[in-house]
Amino acid sequence: MNYTIREISQRTGIPASTLRFYETRGLLPRVKRDPHGVRVYDDADLDRLGTITCLKNTGMGVGEMARFMALYEQGDATLAERRELVRAQQQALSARIRAMRDYKRHIDEKLEYYDLACACGSEAEARRLRCCPGAAPAGERSAG
Questions:
Q1: pTM, whole model, 2 decimals?
Q2: What does the DSSP assignment read for 106-140?
């Protein structure tokens, strides 16, 4: 099936300007043109955009994506090299996921702290309760 740049943009959520950028950078090197010079995309271009979007969303840069897509165009002779590019991307993504989990843990702890501070009415009281978990809230302390 054939698609206009507008249809591809609507189907993928990729702005037309980005599609043109991908074409100039070699990520979409074979976009056909009709007799009037209007871009005509096909299902293979749509599949390629799915791969590009995945690579982009996992943090791969445009240069590396262009390299990957150029290797893809060369066929089976580049399978091992493409596998290594994907493996490197997988490792980089795994490292970013680990870092994000650490950030989430930190944010979870902050939220827990602020929930306690809001319930206590002050950060000082929240810090005291976190420091001494068995301590009674300030309003409940016995005069001793």
A1: 0.75
A2: HHHHHHHHHHHHHHHTSHHHHHHHHHSTTPPPGGG
